[in-house]
Amino acid sequence: MDSTADISIGQVVKSRAGRDKGRIFLVYGIADEQYVYIVDGDLRRLDSPKKKKIKHLIVFNTVLPEFKEKIENSVKINNSYIRKILEPFNKSF
After folding, report:
1. CA 42 to chain centre
2. What CATH number does residue 83 fall under?
3. What is the 3-state secondary structure of 22-37?
4. Would you say 40 and 48 are in contact if contact means Cβ atoms under 8 Å apart?
5. Contact by Cβ (8 Å): 66, 33
6. Beta bridge partners of 12
7. 3-class DSSP assignment, residue 50
8. How many domains does the chain have?
9. How high is the pLDDT of residue 91?
10. Distances (CA, A) of 21 to 5, 24, 56, 66, 76
């Protein structure tokens, strides 16, 4: 998968390359056809999301609709909220 056509905001991804290899992230935004913005609330916070190529990510089928809904409705979220919703994924992967 080298295109953002099948990726949505709130989707759980895992880094397969780079310094953050093996870490779990959430898709925070879509930059263009090859790049997305990812956050994890720890290394990559909401105020400085990481711009990453799709080919460097393992994309899971899990989409967190409550995160997507909050982003689309401009509800204020913080980094601890992101860490909390990613916690089960960090334990299982």
Report:
1. 12
2. 2.30.30.30
3. CCEEEEEEECCCCEEE
4. no
5. no
6. 26
7. strand
8. 1
9. 82
10. 23, 9, 9, 26, 29
